[in-house]
Amino acid sequence: MSKFWSAIVHELTPYVPGEQPKLTNLVKLNTNENPYGPSPKVLAALEAEAADSLRLYPDPTSDRVVQAVAKFYNVPDTHVFVGNGSDEVLAHTFHALLKHDAPILFPDITYSFYPVYCGLYGIEYQTVALDGEFEINVDDYKRPNGGIIFPNPNAPTGRGLPLAEIERLLKANTESVVVIDEAYVDFGAESAVGLVEQYPNLLVTHTLSKARSLAGLRVGYAIGQPHLIEALVRVKDSFNSYPLDRFAISGAAAAIEDRAYFEETCRKVVATREALVKELQALGFVVLPSAANFIFARHGERSGAELAAGLRERSIIVRHFSKPARISDFLRITIGTDAQSQVLVHALKEILTP
Ligand SMILES: Cc1ncc(COP(=O)(O)O)c(C=O)c1O
Question: 200 phi and psi, to 5 degrees?
């Protein structure tokens, strides 16, 4: 607290990111990073960038990334916005498209940055409870609102919502923007990008941090019709003209262009996930069906806090949310390599053995 703070800073409850420990030799399964490195073509592009060009400002509109994204999804360039991680894209989205008179809606259990953006930008919100199976029921969103946002698959549950349900929501909600945060979609859910042409109020956001193994580069993007993109550009150009540096532009373009590497990496992560789910079920865990690069699981007899602490003692970090009570016995476990899964399962067997 300080008398020098503005009133809004006094009121903020900032987001707390998952721990990035300084220790090495940890099995780090807490922030949904990809266990595989980025495409070798990304590394070559980054090396090529480390030259005289760093003297110069980067392209303020990151055209190479915009074009790569547009080509990947077969949409016009005018439908694409890029930013410094999808967190920045989401921040601009809240500011540009979700701040209206009515409260916005998002699930009660979801990405915990959403209420933080509401606090920062003074946006009213209402949460909508997930059903008993931790699923989003789109009928619950049929009420007046200033916008709707949720991840598909949802985080931290990992549950995917079929595209037909998203389309049903869009048909029922034509007067405010619907944002589908597809940070994890490439691991098994259906993308809504194909609906953008038909629905002028749909914005889909993505990140390169997960399926493209580039959490450290900070690149995200949004796809929507040009009038939505223009709103994001207006906010971006009132905030930071150069959100992507030269490395980020080169690396991101190379990552998106290397479709084969991306598909292979996703396939490996999904295969490891399916094998791990079976092993955890055999140990007495209830695992929610996951379409993401993490699983959300609870043990029938041990608390989430106890399991997370036991794993930490064995140098394995997973994410545990003590609130709300409904998820306090769950662990969110990022999918690592097969070898990391084996270390995890071995440690859990030790903890569970009386
Ligand atoms: C649902 C969801 N959306 C967006 C993000 C932000 O991703 P980034 O800022 O790394 O692009 C995350 C990060 O974990 C997430 O879980």
Answer: -70, -10
